[in-house]
Amino acid sequence: MQEHAIPGARFVDPKILARIGNLELLARSVVEGFINGLHRAPYFGASIDFAEHRGYVAGDDIRRVDWRLYARTDRFYVKQYEADTNTNMSLLLDVSRSMQFASRGIPKLEYACFVGACLAYLSQKQRDRVGLISFDNDIVSLVPPSAKHFNVVLQTLDRSKAQRPGNLAIPLNKMAEHFKRRGLLVLISDFYEEPDTILEAIKPLKFLGNDLIVFHVLDPAEIDFGYEDASSFEDLETGEQIPVVPESLVKEYRQMIQAHIGALTHKFSDHRIDYTVVNTAEPLDRALFSYLSSRERMMRVR
Amino acid sequence: MSFLTPFFLLGLGAIAVPVLVHLIQREKKRVVEFPSLMFVRRIPYQSVRRRRIRHWALLMLRAAAIILIVLAFARPFMRQGAVAAAAAGGAREIVIALDQSASMGYGDHWARATDAARGVVRGMGANDRATLVLFAKNAEENMRATADRSRLEGAINAAKVTSGATRFGPALKLAESILSRSPIKRREAVLISDFQRSGWSGSEEVRFPEGTKVSTVSVASPNTANLSVPSVSFARASFSGQERITVTAGLSNKGDEAVKDVPVTLTIDGHEIQTEKASVAPHASGSVSFTQFTLTGPNVRGTIHAGTDLLPADNNFHFVLTPSAPVSLVVVDSGASPTSSLFLSKALSIGSTPAFQLEQTTAARMTPAAFDKRSVVILNDTTFPPAAGGGALRRFVERGGGLLVAAGDHTTWPQGDADLLPGRLGATVDRVSGRSGSLGYLDYSHPVFEVFKAPRSGDFSAAHVFRYRALQTAPGDRVLARFDDGAIAAAEKKIGGGRVIVWTSTLDDSWTDIGVKPIFLPLVHQVVRYLAQYEQPASWFTVGQVLDLTARAKSKTDRIVVTPSSERISQSSLGEGTEGLLELGEQGVYEIRTPGPASGRPEAIAVNLDPAESDLSAVDPSELVAAVTGHATQSAVQPDQAQEMTREESERRQSLWWYLLLSGIGLLAVETLISNHLSRKEKFL
């Protein structure tokens, strides 16, 4: 295994980044930042994007006077440009016990860490501030957004362990109180709750004007329920065991999980929340690339 | 119950295995972790019954199989048997004498007898040993002393009623011998029989050792009805050169009620010839005569069948008939008187069993060929025939011929052949004056006179003898009769295979009037039969008789005997020392066959039951017990010190582990079948 200087650096896989490295994770809404960045700021500032003209008032920098317009109109107008800024990108990572599930290959939590790390890398490259909040039925760890916290985020991702049962409402409510500034929130979870409950839990985050991106991480076994032998199934969250004959309920199960995903898609779409189902069986680069590409296209449309 | 290796009982813990298989092990083995069962929970599903024990029967089977196998390894044995035996006075040596004579075939006697024998076996303690003695006329130790009850019961089940007669003596002697040899102190003999009176004469001289318990089980029925055919007689007559037979069957009714109009059937060579009705009073005998039939050849088989009753064996009587061969003889007289051989020839022309083929000649005309194919030569008051000279007569006698010399006036005898006569003939003794002579002494032990032994069987004193020739016998010659004056009337000498008898008077009316006396004819017949060594072929034998086959047919060395039950016995298999001897043990017809191409009918031997077997009257068993024990009532058995068997011995004898192991394996096989069936049926469970 390749050794990395920074714990968690393994989540920033060069192979994945080589695929998505030329993409950008842009906030769909206006975000507030301190420095120039890729995101639109609520303020006018120095940039190359012309916004509007306004009348000169005392105190304005005469360098911003549009002399060409003065020549035509004989009035002093000042050119205003849209300000570009950076933003806070916070990863909200579900580390409930169901996230440790892996039918084959990589566990969902690890896959989620990859997703988060890659997005954090993109943000950090865009000079956004990156932070991380992991939660299960409460907040587990908190890395405040900072331009210097990328490594801390990676380290925290590396230490993440799915140990306790999960609950969205409590930790997300706490987070909503925590965020004081609009930013980009990336929520990664398996969403094993009723769609209405999920939406109710997420709404407070949205109220602040945050741009919310949701990744629904699912193992292929959770989607197609490809079991054959009759077995006792143990709920990783509750520990409850139920005897199950897969053949007799696979059809119903698939219908129910698809209905669940459909309901989430519908509800998130209504609230302008990007919702992406990520199958851990799919290569991560492909999943991220398709998402970011589609997001970019959507941004242009707007 | 105790166990030889109780540590194996720890294996009973293995019963938990099937329970775990049902409840725990199977579930744990297939637990699948899943992120959340929120969707699964919504699907109604009945498979929660997996948590319960679904197949109690299967579980019970598995548990029972494990218990049985573990118990088998622990080697269990019952101590009750040993303790009971000890409490009752220790181990017993038991002899079970089971009567298998023909009379046990009456009704349900045999079934009751075998039930009683099995009851004795089942009542044995663990330490008891028993010997099974089967007896009829003889007794045999069928099963040597053993404690293995299953083997004893097997031997009892395999025993069958035989055709033998009942004799208690050999069985009791054998039982006494077995018990006296036994090291076990408690000895017991159980006699199971119908206790036929005919089987016990009272002079068997059997005495069991003191302390031996003799118990009896009588299966005799109180009121028996039995009709039997004890004998058959044949009247032979010659007609047109063929022999005609009249069969008369004797019937015996041993029951308390008269038998009326019972059909009696004569069967000859498998064909029913005639059926007659007969009635016999209770405890009486009767007879039925059938119409004459012609005897066409040798070894004709016949059977008399009379009625049906609870003892069918004695309702049949088998016989074999062969035409009697005539005795060929030549009478040589002097020719001086035409009546010299009249009485003799008349007497010999009457015989039918056997018939006599008589040729009469004179000494002068006699030729050497006259000796050929003749059985007897009678020199009736004649000179020594010239044709008999030169050793011809001697050779005839030595070959087995018979010679009767009736000495008279004309009788001469050459010196060269003087040793042919039993003694030397002397002068004529005249008894004319005074009281004539008569026969005063007869050797009734001789075959000639044996038939006259019984009173009123022939009055020889009525014959008068007026003259006779003195005879001086030599040592070795046997005097058969003497006159009242002590002179020899008849003497015999055996030469080679033949016999010579001299009658010192004449056989006509010149010297004696015996020719006109009633005794003359049977006497002449007896003498000629004896000299011809004639033996009437037996039409039947009785079960138990031993037949000397070599004596019956000397030329036939290789023989195969087919018994009535179709068993084939070659003579060589009869055993060393018993070569040619055949014990007739079955009722029916034996066949004696010779290898090679069949030449006519095979020789047949009819064998019938001992007539005594038909008499079912029973002797009191207590009388028999008293005779063999010396006590009118059974003496109390002295309790001996218990011979406690070791644990190992008890376990080895009982061998319960074997049954447990087999049962356990059987249960596992059943369990496999059931579980396979259920698996196929519940594929998705």
Structure notes:
The complex is a heterodimer of chains A (302) and B (685). Chain A is 37% helix and 24% strand. Chain A has 302 residues and is an alpha/beta fold. In chain A, the strands form three sheets. In chain A, strands 6-5-4-7-8-11 form a six-stranded mixed beta sheet, with helices on both faces. Chain A has a three-stranded antiparallel beta sheet with strand order 1-3-2. A two-stranded antiparallel sheet of chain A has the order 9-10. Chain B has 685 residues and is α/β, with parallel strands linked by helices. Chain B is built from 15 helices and 33 strands. In chain B, the strands form eight sheets. In chain B, strands 18-17-19-20-26-25-24-22 form an eight-stranded mixed beta sheet, with helices on both faces. A five-stranded mixed beta sheet of chain B has the order 6-5-4-7-8, with helices on both faces. In chain B, helix 3 packs antiparallel against helix 15 (656-681). The longest helix of chain B is centred in the last third of the chain and has 26 residues, at 656-681. The A-B interface holds A 98-99, 101, 108, 190, 192, 219, 221-222, 227, 229-238, 240-245, 247-249, 252-253, 256-257, 260 and B 27, 30-43, 45, 47-48, 50-51, 684-685. Strand 9 of chain A pairs parallel with strand 2 (31-34) of chain B.
